[in-house]
Each structure stands twice: as C-alpha cells, then as structure tokens.
UniProtKB/TrEMBL annotation:
Biological or metabolic pathway of the protein: Cofactor biosynthesis; thiamine diphosphate biosynthesis
Name of the protein in question: hydroxymethylpyrimidine kinase
GO molecular function, one term: hydroxymethylpyrimidine kinase activity
Keywords associated with the record: ATP-binding, Kinase, Nucleotide-binding, Transferase
Length: 277
C-alpha cells in the first residue's frame, strides 16, 4: 500500500466492503481471499456467500451453489443494518442469483467491481450459458468496473482468446459497447516478460504493466486484484488511482508468495506481505 492511498482515521471513516462470492476452503481465492485483501488494504470486510466449493491448491473438486433465496437473505440482512461503501462480486452460481443481485444493485451508489469468474484455470466452464447470458445482460451494465482475464473476456464477447495487445484492446472495446462502464482486461495469459493490463472506459485507454514474476503461487490473483481495486476505490473515490494502487499491491503479493508454504499445487499470494515479518 502506498502512502498516497493509505487511509487515515483523521480524514475518513474506515470503509465497509462487501464481497459477494463463493467460498474457497484453502483460503487462497473466493471470499477468503477477498476478506484478507480488504483487511490488508485498510477496509472492514463482509461477505455474502453464493456457493461452497471443495478445492485446494491443485484444483476444484466440487461446487455446491446456495439457493438464490438464501443469497438474497444474506444481502438483505446486511442492507438493513450496515453501511456498505463498496462491493466486489465474484463467483455467481446461476441466473436467478444474478437477477436478485441486479435488482438490489440498481439502487446502490458506491463502487461495484465485477470479477466474472467463468472459467477455471484448466479451461473448464464454471457457469452455464444461461448464467453467462444473465451476467452479460443484467449485471455487466450495473458494475462500475469489470475485470476479466483473457479467456473470460473472449467468452463475454463471443470470440477466440486474444493473442496480442491489439486484439485485447479490440475485445475490451466490444465489452464497453455491450454496456460495461469500465473494463480492466488482465493480460497475464499473453506471452512475454511483462504482464500488461488494460484499463478502458469512455475517457480512453491506459496500459499498466509489471515484470512477470516466476512463481507457481498465483491462486486467487483475480479475486485479490478485484478486491484491492474495490478497497482503494472506496477510499480514494478515483478509479484510475485505485487500479494503479491495486496493481502495485497484487504484484507485491505475488512477489512475496513463495514465503508461504500452502499445498503442493498453485499456492496463494501473500495478502499480508507488508504486515508479516
């Protein structure tokens, strides 16, 4: 966290951030990663759980979606009692859950970051076609920022995965035309020594890049990045500032990931690298 983005009690209250996502029992992704990120970035974290998973650092073995009515009850319970300053949305189980969220988000005025968790690391689809359609048409226009990786971006626009930065920009522009307010296209799947991300909105495009870090411990990077953006956005009020700060945070979290010893597959990033000695 940089000094410019670190909140202080004297200038503003601690922001309350909500994650709407699935649970990862291994702690590297999902609501567990989101809550760690909120805390590390200076916010108070809350959660609405959309589904349970059986997973570890080697993969996802099972998914148990929660009923849409119970997802709604969790959300409504928070809305009636607690000020919510920003929302991050991750794994959504089905179209009925998306319809419920869309109805409630239509009246929400704070930052909303949508991380479209659609495809597993191995390439398998995590949601069916009706759910993809509902996400694209009902939820996408309500999010202040959508953060797809390249396979997710390709799925959202119905094309093959981008292989170049030019194709990445073209697909991000198509997603903007579909109703997204802003897009952060994550280019980690591109080859090369640097990782390029593209921030695109109606004001224009900007590229962010960092050197690629040689580590297998990248589980939950998308969850962590989107949660960091939501945290910094709720605190600063500026999306560009938030994305830059979050890009720095995730780069450092990946860079310190090998300090942890979690599992035998793709381990988690180090969410508390700046706090743990």
């Amino acid at each position: 966290m940089t000094q410019a983005t670190q909140p202080t009690q004297a200038t503003q209250p601690i922001r309350n951030l909500l994650t709407i996502a699935g649970s990862d029992p291994s702690g590297g992704a999902g609501i567990q990663a989101d809550l760690k990120t909120f805390s590390a970035c200076g916010c108070y974290g809350m959660s609405v759980i959309t589904g349970l998973t059986a997973q570890n650092t080697q993969g996802v073995q099972a998914i148990h979606p929660l009923p849409a009515e119970f997802v709604a009850q969790q959300f409504d319970s928070l809305l009636t009692d607690i000020r919510i300053d920003g929302i991050k949305i991750g794994m959504l189980s089905d179209a009925s859950v998306i319809a419920i969220l869309a109805k409630r988000l239509s009246d929400f005025n704070g930052p909303v970051v949508l991380d479209p968790v659609m495809i597993a690391k191995g390439g398998a689809a995590l949601i069916d076609s009706p759910t993809q359609h509902a996400l694209r048409n009902q939820l996408l226009p309500l999010a202040g920022l959508v953060t797809p990786n390249l396979p997710e971006l390709a799925t959202l626009v119905g094309q093959a995965e981008a292989q170049t930065r030019e194709q990445m920009l073209d697909q991000a522009e198509q997603l903007l035309a579909l109703g997204a307010q802003a897009v952060l296209a994550k280019g980690g799947h591109l080859s090369g020594n640097d990782c390029y991300d593209l921030l695109l909105n109606k004001q224009g495009a900007s590229w962010l890049h960092q050197p690629r870090i040689a580590t297998a411990n990248t589980h939950g990077t998308g969850c962590t990045l989107s949660s960091a953006i939501a945290s910094f956005w709720a605190q600063s009020g500026d999306l560009t500032t938030a994305v830059a700060a979050a890009k720095h945070y995730i780069t450092q979290a990946i860079g310190h990931a090998d300090q942890l010893q979690v599992g035998s597959g793709h381990g988690p990033t180090h969410h508390f690298y700046q706090w743990w000695s």
